[in-house]
Design brief:
Largest sheet: 5 strands, mixed
Number of helices: 10
Order of helices and strands: EHHEHEHEEHEEEHHHEEHEEEH
Oligomer: single chain
Structural class: alpha/beta
Shape: globular
Length: about 350
C-alpha cells in the first residue's frame, strides 16, 4: 500500500440497477413507464439554449414555490436537490453528527449504509419482522437519528401513518427522516406532521410518480429552521445544484395535478392486476403499495429466474442477500409490458 492510501476515504459504493442501452422490457429500477406531464415536453421544446451560459437560480425558486403551493406549506419549508439521493445525502451530512448510532431497517434502501460509511456515521439496523414489516418499538431507544422509507424498499410495504407518528413521537431528541419516494402510490404522507414535530424531515422525489428520473429532482419538507440548516450545508458544498431546465420542468410537472393523478391510477391498477397474475402462477407477493412488487416462488430459484428473464430481454431486480435472495423486485410497467413479462413466465413454468 502506498503511504498516501491510508488517508484516502474508502467506501463500498451503492450499486444501482442496470441501465441497458438496447431495447428491453425494463422492470428493474422503478422508473415510471409513462412520459412526464405534457407541459414538460413543451418546456423542453421551447427552452432557450442561451440560458445555459448563465448560472441557474441557486434557490430553485420557481420549483420551491410550486411545491410549497402544492403541499400547502411555506416556501421556507421546502428544500430542493438533485434527486432525493442528493437530498438524503445532504440530510445525513447535516443532521447525523452524534456519536450515537443512527437507526434504520436491516432490509431497506441500501444507500443508507453507503452514506453512513461515507460520512463516518455509526449505525445500527433494526430487523424487520417475519412479515418484512418495521417493528416500531425497536426505534424507541437511544440513538443518533432515525431514517426509514415509507413504503419501504425493496418490500413495498406501507407503514400506517399512526405507526410513523409513534416513531417520531418517541424520538423527539433526534432528527427523524421519512423517505417517501413511493408514497404517492400508497397512502397518507407524513408531510402533514411537519408542523407538529420540529424534528421531522420528509423527503420525496420526481423519479417515480412524476416520471422524471432523468431530470434528477428531489425535495425535503420540514420546518423553516431545519430547511435553513440544509441550505447552509448545501451552499457550503455547491451553490448551484439544480440546472434551469430541471427547475422549470419540475415546476410545470407539479402544476399539472390531473395528469399526475391519472398516472397514479394507471400504475396502481396495473400493480393490483399484476399481483393477481403472480399469485395465479404460484408466487407469494408482499402487499406492495409502491410501483413495484416483491415476489417469491416456492418452486423456482429467484436467481435462476432473474437470469432467464434477462436472457429474454426482460430486466427485473434481484439481490443475493440474506432473507431476500429468493425474491424478485418487479417494477410495474405498462399493461403491455407486463403482459410480455407474464407470457414469458407462463412458458418458463410449463
Amino acid at each position: 500500500m502506498k503511504s498516501f492510501e491510508k488517508n484516502i476515504r474508502k467506501v463500498e459504493p451503492y450499486v444501482p440497477g442496470e441501465q441497458p442501452r438496447q431495447k428491453v422490457i425494463k422492470l428493474n429500477t422503478n422508473e415510471n413507464p409513462y412520459p412526464p406531464a405534457p407541459g414538460v415536453k413543451k418546456i423542453l421544446e421551447n427552452m432557450d439554449a442561451d440560458r445555459l451560459r448563465l448560472y441557474p437560480d441557486p434557490t430553485s425558486g420557481e420549483l420551491i414555490k410550486a411545491l410549497a403551493k402544492y403541499y400547502g406549506v411555506g416556501e421556507d419549508q421546502v428544500f430542493a436537490g438533485v434527486g432525493s439521493d442528493d437530498v438524503l445525502s445532504m440530510c445525513f451530512l447535516t443532521f447525523f453528527n452524534s456519536e450515537k448510532p443512527i437507526l434504520f431497517p436491516d432490509i431497506t434502501y441500501s444507500f443508507y449504509k453507503v452514506w453512513a460509511g461515507l460520512y463516518r456515521i455509526p449505525y445500527e439496523c433494526c430487523a424487520l419482522d417475519g412479515n418484512f414489516r418495521i417493528v416500531k418499538e425497536d426505534y424507541y431507544r437511544e440513538n443518533g437519528g432515525v431514517i426509514f422509507p415509507n413504503p419501504n424498499a425493496p418490500t413495498g410495504l406501507y407503514q400506517e401513518l399512526g405507526d410513523v407518528e409513534d416513531i417520531i413521537r418517541n424520538n423527539q431528541d433526534v432528527i427523524v427522516i421519512v423517505d417517501e419516494a413511493y408514497v404517492d402510490f400508497a397512502g397518507k404522507s407524513a408531510v402533514g406532521l411537519v408542523d407538529k414535530y420540529d424534528n421531522l424531515i420528509v423527503v420525496q422525489t420526481f423519479s417515480k410518480a412524476r416520471s422524471m428520473a432523468g431530470m434528477r429532482i428531489g425535495y425535503a419538507i420540514s420546518n423553516p429552521l431545519l430547511i435553513r440548516y440544509l441550505n447552509d450545508a448545501k451552499y457550503s458544498f455547491n451553490s448551484y445544484t439544480m440546472n434551469p431546465l430541471s427547475i422549470a420542468c419540475g415546476a410545470e410537472a407539479v402544476r399539472d395535478r390531473a395528469y399526475f393523478e391519472e398516472g397514479l391510477r394507471k400504475i396502481t391498477e396495473t400493480r393490483e392486476w399484476a399481483k393477481e397474475q403472480l399469485s395465479g402462477l404460484g408466487f407469494s407477493c408482499l402487499d406492495s403499495k409502491a410501483n413495484f412488487i416483491f415476489a417469491t416462488h416456492p418452486q423456482y430459484d429467484a436467481g435462476e429466474l432473474f437470469k432467464a428473464l434477462k436472457e429474454k430481454g426482460i430486466y427485473v431486480r434481484h439481490w443475493d442477500a440474506e432473507r431476500i435472495s429468493q425474491y424478485l423486485r418487479i417494477t410495474v410497467g405498462t399493461r403491455e409490458e407486463m403482459e410480455i413479462f407474464f407470457d414469458f413466465l407462463r412458458r418458463y413454468m410449463k
